[in-house]
Amino acid sequence: MGRLAGKVAFITGAGAGIAKASALAFAREGAKVAIAEIKGDLGRATEKAIRDAGGDAVFYETDVTQDESLKRAIDAAVARYGRLDVLMNCA
């Protein structure tokens, strides 16, 4: 088991760059990853990469500049996983 086994991470901007690399690393360490990304194709690609490697991830199309969009994504992630342990705001 990795250092983040059993943890749930919510990462904004996880479709590219540092946030994507972080999402992949969190998943390798055993975290379940909620991917909040405005660009659907990028968010789905990160989710697929994590799942293909055997991890647990879910993508939420999210515009972090809109409070309701972000709230919906957070609420959905908590509903799915029961809690959030890590928040990484990288968008």
Task: Please describe what this structure looks like.
- By secondary structure, the chain is an alpha/beta fold.
- It has helices at 17-28, 40-52, 67-81, and strands at 8-12, 32-37, 57-61, 86-89.
- It has a four-stranded parallel β-sheet, with helices on both faces.
- The N and C termini lie far apart (29 Å).
- The relative contact order is 0.26.
- The model has no long low-confidence stretch (mean pLDDT 97).
Instruction: Estimate the helix proportion, in percent.
Output: 40-55%
User: What is the straight-line distance between the termini?
Assistant: 29 Å
Describe the biggest sheet? 4 strands, parallel
In total, the number of strands is 4
Alpha-carbon Rg, integer? 12 Å
Mean pLDDT: 97
| Secondary-structure-derived class | alpha/beta
Strand content: 15-25%
Chain oligomer state: single chain
Question: Helical region count?
Answer: 3
Query: H/E element string?
Result: EHEHEHE
Judging from the principal axes of the Cα atoms, what is the shape? globular
Give a quick rundown of the structure:
With 91 residues, the chain is of the alpha/beta class. It is built from three helices and four strands.
Which short descriptors sum up this protein?
3 helices; globular; 91 residues
Describe the secondary structure blueprint for this structure.
Blueprint lengths: L7 E5 L4 H12 L3 E6 L2 H13 L4 E5 L5 H15 L4 E4 L2
Parallel strand pairs: 1-2, 1-4, 2-3
